[in-house]
Write a structure and sequence with these properties.
With 100 residues, this protein is mainly alpha-helical. The chain has one domain. The protein is built from 3 helices and no strands. It is elongated and about 70 Å long.
Length: 100
């Protein structure tokens, strides 16, 4: 097996693992948010889902659209960056409601 083929297979395996495990964690966070009605957990689940989808969408773009490496990384970043922004937002508590 050539080095290029080995690298392609390794990339496929790692990307698949990242998407599967990321999806499982995002799903568990979403279920917890639904169970507890927690806005922070809801934002956490959305952020984790976006971070997990980044590599999947990038890989699909590379395969289906023939994107080069730089474009694939851009597509991934367009999902991963907002995902991390949602993760950061989920860590800050909601402001206390004003009582009259």
């Amino acid at each position: 097996m050539s080095t290029h083929t080995t690298l392609t297979v390794a990339t496929l395996v790692v990307t698949t693992a990242a998407v599967v495990f990321g999806g499982v964690v995002a799903s568990l966070a979403y279920r917890a948010a639904d169970r507890t009605s927690s806005r922070s957990l809801q934002l956490l689940s959305y952020g984790l889902g976006a971070v997990a989808l980044g590599p999947l969408v990038g890989a699909l773009g590379a395969v289906a659209l023939g994107l080069d490496a730089e474009s694939t990384l851009l597509v991934q970043g367009l999902l991963v960056a907002p995902g991390f922004a949602l993760l950061v937002r989920s860590l800050y508590p909601a402001p206390d409601p004003v009582r009259a």
